[in-house]
Write a structure and sequence with these properties.
The complex is a heterodimer.
Chain A lengths: L5 E2 L9 H14 L3 E3 L8 H14 L2 E3 L1 E4 L4 H11 L5 E5 L3 H9 L5 E3 L12 H10 L2 E5 L1 H5 L2 H20 L4 E4 L11 H7 L7 H8 L1 H14 L3 E3 L2 E2 L8
Chain B lengths: L5 E10 L5 H22 L4 E6 L4 E7 L3 H9 L3 E2 L2 E11 L2 H8 L1
Antiparallel strand pairs in B: 1-3, 1-5, 2-3, 4-5
Classes of the chains: A alpha/beta, B alpha+beta.
Chain lengths: ~240, ~100
Amino acid sequence: MTRTFADLHLRINPKDTQTAQRLIVKAKQLGYQSISIPFTQGLQETEAATLKDMCNKTGLDFVLRSDFRPRTQEDLMRFLRKFRRKFEVICIACDSKEVARQAAKDRRVDLINFPSLDYHKRFFDRAEAELASCSLTGLEVDVKSILVMEGPARVRLLSCLRREVAVALEFHVPVVLSSGGDVENLLRMPRDLASLAYLFGLDEAQALDAISTNPNAIVLRNREKLSSRFISPGISVVKEGKAV
Amino acid sequence: MKRVKRRYIALLLECDSLPSEREFLDAVWAAVTKLYGEVGASLTGLSLINFDGKRKIFVIRTSLSSLSMVKTSLATVTTVAGKAAALNVLAVSGTLKALYDNVG
């Protein structure tokens, strides 16, 4: 079976169309089928339409994603109420334990992400994994930090990632591998990206799933939910009849 | 003594300038050493086999047992000869003939 690869995190400003165009072309050359450029300040419809158009012309599928860094639990809930139905993927960057726990147990959150530099703020432990596994929330790992860091900082990051990924696998939490890149040189071919995942304990099949099956499953599930025909999981409108 | 199985890797260098063979190999060795240390690097048996300057395609050889280590290290290369660069694995093969057939 041919895998379709997705990079759900190209970290660029959606308003910077020139950089976006370059990265979109590059992603296509490297062999990705779908990409995502996160919106951090709500949905800007003009930019979203431009990016979608650029991707369509290049032959890529554009996934509408939003990244949010809430300060409190209430902040997170407010954001989800306002934006859940506007984006296909929602990723929450967790800066506090309170937010991390709430994000993990909320079914409206698709991905959780933790800061690469501050190890005291990586809250992905067994309790977090248990909550995330019940709500189908995935753990996102950006490889950019592994590429740009060196020495003790990289050693510490790899050690944290190895522990977190082991916990995620134990609790069947989907791991999603993204480039997190903002320049072309930090993008890698899907299989090269997967080979970086060996560093924190994913085997070949799991690493390939992390850049194909897992992100694609999230996008597919959310697109189904956002469609007007969706009623509830497994139930959708097939045909509408006329009133008698 | 057991025969050492080898793998040939074709790499595409993405860099604005063209580094020399020496600079390229130094960047690869540096990446392997940084990630796996000197003992790990010594197990790889890395060597440069061929270099196509026009297409920026390099062919290196490594032992089969350390293939995943080398592939991981290649993915971490971000600079070659002080210039921003990336290495993409085009093909991996057990013989040079099959490798060149794959790369074209």
